[in-house]
Amino acid sequence: MTEQITTPSANDTNDAPKHNLEAHNFDATDSYNFAYLDEQTKRMIRRVLLKALAIPGYQVPFASREMPMPYGWGTGGVQVTAACLTPDDCVKVIDQGADDTTNALSIRSFFASTAGVRTTEATDKASLIQTRHRIPEIELTEGQLLVYQVPIPEPLRFLEPRETETRKMHALSEYGLMHVKLYEDISQHGHIATAYAYPVNVEGHYVMDPSPIPKFDNPKMNNCAAIQLFGAGREQRIYAIPPYCHVKSLDFEDYPFDRLRAPGACALCGADDSYLDEVIMDDEGTRMYVCSDTDFCSTRREQGHVGDQSGLFDSEEG
Amino acid sequence: MQPDALKGGFADLPIQSATAFRSVLQAMARPGTIHQLAGAAPPPPLSVAAGVVLLTLCDPETPLFVGASVDTPDLRSWISFHTGAPFSAASAAVIAIGSWQDFTPLSAFPVGSAEYPDRSTTLITEVDLLGREGSNACRLTGPGIQDFYTLCLPDPALMQANRALFPLGLDFILTSDSSVAALPRSTKIEVM
Ligand SMILES: [Zn+2]
Predict the structure, then answer these.
(1) Is A50 on the interface with B (CB under 8 A)?
(2) Are strands A247-249 and B122-126 parallel, antiparallel or unpaired?
(3) pLDDT at residue B165 above 60?
(4) Does A53 contact B28 at a Cβ distance shorter than 8 Å?
(5) What is the mean predicted confidence (pLDDT) over A105-118?
(6) Which residues of A are identified as catalytic?
C-alpha cells in the first residue's frame, strides 16, 4: 500500500492544507441558504444518502459542490452534514480527536452561523458529529449521526487505478488483491503494517475505506448504534453504515486483526484503554503520551482521574 | 394549472424539508421504525406523509412515476408546481408514488446495475395502515436493526424476492396518514 494511507502525516499533504477558514468570517446576519447549500443540492445529497444507507458500504457517486473552503477541509463531510442538519441539532466537530484545532473550530462556527445550530465539545451532548480521522472513545448512541471526512473513498484505488475496474471488483466482491496487499505487509514486516484507513468488510459484501482513522478505531464501527455517513468531496462519493451493522476488519486466520495501541497510559488522565497521541513537551524532545480524544480526556480529569504527569501539564497550562 | 395546486406546500421550505429528511433518513437507516411527518397538504387521495416525502426528495432531476390509484389532474398539478419533477414511465422512474397495486409487477422498475446498484427506483408506497400486528406481519432483521422489528407489509413474498436481488433492488418508503417507515433492499423479511 502506498504511503498515502499508511501514515496520517503523509495523508495530510492532500488532506489538511493549512488555510485559515476563519478569514472568510461567516456571519449569521448574512443571507445564506440554510446550512449554506441551496435546496436542490441538499435534495440531491439527501437522495444519495438514502441510497447509501440502503446499500451499506457501497460508494454512491454524487455531484460535489464548490464549498467556501479547500477540499482538504473535508468538503465531502461538510456537504453531508449540511444536507442532514436541522435547527434542533447540536454539532460537534473533531479533527484527529481534538475539538480545538483551527479546522474543527472553523467548521463548527461555519454551521453555527449558516444553520443556527448549537455546538458542543461533549460527545454525549452532540446529535451530529463531523470527524476527521478519529471515532470518539465513548460509545455512540441511537439517533446520533457520525459524519466522516474522507480523502480517498476507494479502498482498491492503490491497487487498481481504473474506476471501471474497481466498480467491477466491488460488483463481484473480488477482493483478492486487497488480501494479497495485506499479506505482503505480513511477509515484509511480520505483521500487517497498515495502521490507518485499514479496510473493512460491511455486512459480508462491500469492502470499504473507513477514512484515515487509526485501525484502533475500526472495531467501534461494528454494531454501532449511531448512523455512520462518509463524504468524499474531491472524489465525489458518499457511503454509509446503518446502525448495528456487521463491520469486520480484513484479516487472515493466522494473522487476526490487531487494534494496535501504544502501550502505556495517558499522562494526563491515566486512561490505559484510549488511543494515545505522542506529544513533544520541550526543546530536548521530552515525550509523553496523551489521549487523542480531548473530550474523553478532559471528562476523565474532571471526574478526578489523574495520570503520571497531569500535575506538570496543569501547571504549564497555568 | 389547478388553482389549489399552489397550496399545500412547505411554508418554510428549508427548515421543513430538513426536518422531514431527517425523519426519512432515520426511517431508512433503521428499517421498521415508524416516524411522523408534517407540513404538506397534498390533494386527496395522497397522505400527508407521502406529500412530505415528495416535497423532500423530488425536483426536476427526478423522473416520477405516478400510480393509477393516485393519478389525478389535481395531484399532477400539485407535484409540478411544488417539485418540478417530470412524469415518467416506470422504467425511467427515480421515484414512484402510488399504492402497492400500482407498482406490480415490480419488474417494470429499474433495480440498478452491478456496477451502479444505486440507480434503482425508490417507491413511495401508500398503505392503509403502518401496523405491527395483523395480516402479513413480518419479522424484519438486517442492517439498521439491532434485534428485530415487526411490520405488516403489502406483499411479503414480492419483497423477499426484491431482497434476494441485493445489492441490486428497489427501496420502499411506506406512508400512511402522517406516518412513514422504510424498507430498503437490505432488510431480511420473514412472514410471522
Ligand atoms: Zn487522557
Answers:
(1) yes
(2) unpaired
(3) yes
(4) yes
(5) 95
(6) 57, 266, 269, 291, 297
